[in-house]
Amino acid sequence: MGNLKNAYTLPKCWRGATGLPTVFNPKEKPWIKPENESIETIIAHIKQCPSGALSYSLVDGKE
């Protein structure tokens, strides 16, 4: 998962973050585990975030 950066704003993203528990689990440390899903799945989930609290950027600058 070396080419995706995650960004989040707590507590604003709590609901959106828990919608993909294989990646976002606030009860664990670290609570974001991007290696558990494909980049495409994570991006699709982030794009559904209604508050805009979850965001991403690709290291290579592409979207």
TrEMBL record:
Pfam families referenced in this protein's UniProt entry, alphabetically: Fer4_19
Domain of life: Bacteria
Residues covered by the Divergent 4Fe-4S mono-cluster domain: 12-57
Name of the protein in question: Divergent 4Fe-4S mono-cluster domain-containing protein
Organism: Paenimyroides baculatum
